[in-house]
Write a structure and sequence with these properties.
Helix content: 10-25%
Largest sheet: 3 strands, antiparallel
Strand content: over 45%
Shape: elongated
Order of helices and strands: EEHE
Strand order of the largest sheet: 2-1-3
């Protein structure tokens, strides 16, 4: 029996360095943008993350895409 994957929702998550501790270790935080179109390209999402974080002074450490699917038997 085949399984069908139905796209549900997606999110763009950006991890960034917020500050340094007194010992010099980085403090990492993340921001998420929910409701991202499921068919948006990875390049477009990366460009959006870069554009948004160019407005603040926090260096971007990692850009993630989280996609959720519902699995159904056909």
């Amino acid at each position: 029996m085949a399984v069908e994957a139905l796209p549900l929702d997606s999110a763009l998550v950006v991890k960034y360095q917020y500050e340094l501790t007194p010992a010099g270790a980085p403090v990492v935080r993340q921001k998420g943008l929910n409701g991202v179109k499921h068919d948006a390209t990875e390049e477009d999402l990366y460009d959006v993350a870069e554009a948004l974080f160019s407005l603040v002074d926090y260096p971007v450490l990692q850009v993630l895409i989280r996609k959720n699917f519902e699995l159904n038997k056909e």
